[in-house]
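quick one: magnesium ion bound model?
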Amino acid sequence: METKCYKASDLDDLIKLNELKTLLIEGKLVVFPTETVYGLGGNALNKDSSKAIYEAKGRPSDNPLIVHIARKEDVKLYARIISEDAAKLMDAFWPGPITFIFDKTDIVPKETTGGLDTVALRMPNHPIAQKLILFTGVPIAAPSANISGRPSSTQFKHVYEDFNGRVDAVIDGGESLIGLESTVIDVTDKPVILRPGAITKSMIEKVLSYTIHDLSGQKPTEKVKSPGMKYTHYKPKGDVVLLHGEIDKVKAFIDQSSANLDKTAIICPNEYTNTFIGYRTRPIGEANNSKSIAKNIFSALRDMDEWDMDKIFIYYNETDEVSYAVMNRLIKASGYQIVSL
Ligand code: AMP
Ligand code: MG
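yep, here:
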């Protein structure tokens, strides 16, 4: 299949915008940028289009898709009940990087929701995403644009690597502003966080004025509430070990355990690259700037495959709530191989 590449300015051209709309209406796939990560988009109301998304990603069909809308008032078309709390949170954070789980209406096919009676809805805060959804006139199902199991795409080159020849169109929107997927919160009952993100637990609690639970720490062996929690995520080909704690102990641990220096890399905050002299390092931003680290982790993980590394150490300590969301991704990338030092 030939994949057509569009740039951001193409969306100002009515002919090109119409081409993209036609593709989506016909059930084809278009990768587009959002403020979190790139999304692999298809018409959310067309079950064949959702099936095509699973196939292009190689995603297990019980792992539901997030449905993207461009107008808040459209929620009632796809959500059966909107609680007072959900309405407050949508007002506070939409458009933005938070996804709400609702009981779904009948027009949302189960192929889109991984067979569930609930639907995940998000209104992204990105001009290209908003324009594409509004102009197409249908909600767009869009999981992260990566082959299942690989790190999410935060740059156009990641999208191209994974999907050139596998989808009909891709839109280059540059680097993702946030770099972490949306916060996911179940609002079918008392709100519960299923995936942490840039909208943090304390930001949500401030709006609700009460404390909520966060289930995102569940291990894949436990009975998970969000199907995505049970699958391998973000994993480079090499073996990944996540280390946290004191830098001297971490350095000693790596010195003792690394076998082949040519095939070993260390992903760490900028200020520690000097400590790991002699090793190949991949800096990810200043240790106390969690927002900049969030932007860098997926491309750092992808670099490990490009560098063909067999052994990857990640050194990272949690500093704040965004950093907690970063850690959630790193834990998964390590396949739960974590060492506290
Ligand atoms: P992705 O689109 O790849 O960022 O992943 C979407 C995440 O949202 C996955 O972890 C899904 O399991 C989760 N999700 C989507 N729909 C639902 C739903 N109806 N109930 C619970 N979790 C959901
Ligand atoms: Mg994903």
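The two ends are 49 Å apart (CA to CA).
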